[in-house]
Amino acid sequence: MTGAERPRLGGPALRLTVLVGENDRCRHRPLSSEIVHRARAAGLAGASVFRGVEGFGASSMVHTARLLSLSEDLPVAVVIVDTEERVRAFLPELEGLAVEGLVTLERCEVLRYAGRAGGPGPAPAAEEGGAA
Question: How far is residue 63's CA from residue 70's CA, in Å, rounded to a whole number?
Fold first, then answer.
């Protein structure tokens, strides 16, 4: 599917948020990167990764970027927004990654979804399933 073939995204949508640690890995790459690449291969509208400055999860261990207690395993949030149908269809990909962290779904409304003219579309078939 090229950018021109992509259906216009607007109105009701679903936001998938995956909270993991910066050091979490899958196939020798950061887990957050693996999720983004799989979302792109699945043709989702977009994915962004946000690095936190402090947080804790199920382990109750606080990770922080403060100088006196520098952590190398800061919290990372991967956020994906698309139609409910497409996001729910992507969820088995996360199950296959055995994500340890928090995964949430929230209903949202897309007010604007626009990219640069001539920007890249989804990953070409040759990139899908490539070695990491």
Answer: 8
Angle between helices 31-41 and 84-97 (to 10 degrees): 140
**Nearest to residue 17, comparing CAs of 44, 41, 47, 38?**
47
**Nearest residue to 15 (alpha-carbon basis) of 67, 83, 76, 64:** 83
Q: What is the DSSP string of 6-55?
A: SPPP-EEEEEEEEEEETT-EETTEEHHHHHHHHHHHTT-S-EEEEE-SEE
Residue given tokens 């946000």 in the structure block: 50
Dist. CA 48–CA 66, nearest whole Å: 24
The pLDDT value recorded for residue 128 is 40
The residue whose two tokens read 């216009």 is 8
| pLDDT tens digits, one per residue of 77-126 | 999 999 999 999 999 999 989 888 899 999 999 999 887 665 555 544 43
Structure tokens at 41: 């291969």
